[in-house]
């Protein structure tokens, strides 16, 4: 199932800037003080990497929405 939206849900927890998401999908996620989702990314190209980042996030704040 294709990914339509990726975001950081700050209502759940706080990003700890561990950079795990960036290590899985560096074209999708950048981590400075907190993780940001890069604008304009074609999520279809990085679907597997995004799913790995979601599953590996220690705080569980990365959320995805499917088309």
UniProtKB/TrEMBL annotation:
Does the UniProt entry include the keyword Electron transport?
A: yes
Task: Tell me if Amino-acid biosynthesis is a UniProt keyword of this record.
Answer: no
InterPro entries given for it? 3Fe4S_ferredoxin
Keywords associated with the record: Electron transport, Iron, Iron-sulfur, Metal-binding, Transport
Quote the Pfam families the UniProt record gives. Fer4_13
Give GO MF terms, alphabetically: electron transfer activity; iron ion binding; iron-sulfur cluster binding
State the protein's purpose. Ferredoxins are iron-sulfur proteins that transfer electrons in a wide variety of metabolic reactions.
Q: What is this protein called?
A: Ferredoxin
Taxon lineage: Bacteria, Pseudomonadati, Bacteroidota, Bacteroidia, Marinilabiliales
